[in-house]
Amino acid sequence: MMLSLSSTDIQLPSPRPHGLAKYRDLTEMARGGNGVLYAAYDQIVGRTVVLKMLLPEHRLDRGFRRRLLREARVTAQLEHPGTVPVHEIGEDEEFGIYYAMKRISGENFFSVLRQLGKGDEKVAAAFPLRRRIEIVRDTCQTLVFAHAAGVIHRDVKPENIWVGNFGEVTLLDWGSAKVWGAPTLDDGRYAVTPTPHNESSHALPSESASISKVKHKEHTYELPTLTPANLLIGTPTYMSPEQIANRDIDERSDVFSVGVCLYEAMAVAEPFRGKDRNETFENICMRQPTPPSERSPNQHIPKEADRIVFKAIAKQTASRYQTMRELIADLDELLLIVRQEETE
Question: What are the residue boundaries of the Protein kinase domain, all occurrences included (predicted)?
Answer without folding.
Answer: 23-335
